TrEMBL record:
Protein source organism: Saccharopolyspora aridisoli
A single BP term in Gene Ontology: dCTP catabolic process
Keyword Oxidoreductase attributed: no
SUPFAM superfamilies hit by this protein: all-alpha NTP pyrophosphatases (SSF101386)
Protein name listed in UniProt: Nucleotide pyrophosphohydrolase
Keyword Hydrolase applies: yes
Amino acid sequence: MTLEDFQRRLRDFADERDWQQFHTPKNLAMALAGEAGELLELFQWLTPEQSSQIMADPATGEKVRHELADVLAYLLRLADVLEIDLMAALDEKMTLNATKYPVELAKGTARKYDQLGQEDL
């Protein structure tokens, strides 16, 4: 299935339940943030090593998959309501990031683009 197929399924799901009245950009953005928070909660207090192994436990792995699916569903729904082509937006943003983070300056560093090339930071 394509992103558009999933957006159509989500739109139909909302329409069948008369939920489109609640799917304002504000409400969808808030729901997206809430679901991202629920995903984050699964990683809270884990060490980096534990977070890398989170999918090893089947029950926790299922929770991670479900929260990621919730985040994606709200992201797709928000983009649909705002009539944003997510693939085009991602392509545009990747092009911008390639300019902001040239390989020769950004490779191997977590510095923000405005700090690249500053050796004493």
